[in-house]
Design a protein that fits this description.
This protein is an alpha/beta fold. The protein has a domain of about 180 residues: 2-enoyl-CoA Hydratase, Chain A, domain 1. The protein contains twelve helices and eleven strands. The strands form three sheets. Strands 3, 4, 6, 7, 8, 9 and 10 form a seven-stranded mixed beta sheet that branches. α6 links the parallel β6 and β7. α4 packs parallel to α5. The protein is flat and about 75 Å long.
């Protein structure tokens, strides 16, 4: 019986034995493969590798930590082989500062090579802000666009704290140092000061949108005012250039980039999954507890 089982599983045993003996060699060769042959290379008919000339960058989920996206933009900017970038967006927005950071990174990238934005689902508030300086914005027919506005929220836990017997003690310097506190109702002078911050940020938002999209800022209530638009409605008010699918966006970028034979840069699927999972999880948790300004 033992001999029978040994013969039955001998192929598997041989394979495992080989892997055990040459594990380091396999790892080394795998690393060398990815170093020598970039995932963005494509084997053509004569057996040589062609280098990618177009790149997709994804902006998915709430915007908070944009370090990975900024790094991708920088790499695309510095890579002379990449002639154009497609920014695929499906995000409800997020914190103001990183949204502005992305917007101006895209503006700098556009100065060197074409950038087309494709709204695959939601392009709203901060994610719309991030997209405004692109050469073209194309939105899926079923996408939601807009929500150009700014908000600051905070809870009032005063009654709950009284019920469970908790009170706060504060030592401060500066009249407005407790503005936005969750331990009591905000004073009128605090609300007024916070409103001035919101208004100034909102004015920056609508001014940048108007400048980037060549709209009259005096008519901001038509395209902003935190309104949500369908793709066709967004086109009518000037927030997007075209309603279409991702294939249309890809063709549009290729045309702007003067590329006939498109070769898209590929990202390692495992790394993409891990980065996306960590980024979205961290962003969602952080957005739940963040009390700062949100373009969301």
């Amino acid at each position: 019986m033992f001999d029978f089982l040994k013969k039955l599983f001998s192929p598997i045993i041989v394979i495992l034995d080989f892997i055990t003996k040459y594990f380091k060699t396999i790892v080394f060769l795998t690393i060398m493969y990815f170093l020598v042959y970039s995932p963005s290379d494509k084997l053509n008919g004569n057996g040589t590798f062609e280098v990618a000339n177009l790149q997709k960058i994804e902006l998915f989920g709430p915007i908070l930590d944009v370090s990975n996206t900024m790094l991708e933009i920088k790499k695309a900017k510095d890579d002379e082989n990449i002639k154009g970038v497609l920014l695929v967006v499906n995000s409800p927005g997020g914190a103001v500062a990183p949204s502005v950071e992305l917007a101006y990174a895209i503006k700098e990238l556009k100065a060197i090579k074409p950038v087309v934005v494709y709204a695959s689902g939601v392009i709203a508030s901060g994610s719309y802000y991030a997209s405004i300086w692109s050469n073209k914005i194309i939105a899926n027919p079923g996408s939601m666009v807009g929500s150009i506005g700014v908000i600051m929220q905070g809870l009032n836990a005063e009654e709950l704290m009284e019920k469970i017997g908790i009170s706060t003690q504060t030592v401060k310097a500066g009249k407005y140092k407790e503005s936005g506190t969750p331990t009591r109702k905000w004073f009128d002078y605090e609300k007024e000061q916070l409103q001035s911050v919101i208004d100034d940020t909102y004015n920056m938002f609508i001014t940048d949108v108007a400048n980037a999209r060549k709209l009259d800022v005096k008519n901001y209530t038509q395209f902003a005012d935190a309104k949500i638009f369908t793709a066709s409605q967004a086109k009518k008010v000037g927030l997007i250039d075209e309603v279409g699918t991702i294939s249309i966006a890809e063709k549009s970028l290729a045309k702007l980039s003067n590329i006939d034979d498109t070769i898209w840069k590929k990202e390692d699927k495992f790394n993409k999954f891990i980065n996306k999972f960590i980024s979205e999880t961290a962003s969602k948790v952080s957005m739940s507890f963040m009390s700062g300004l949100k373009a969301y």
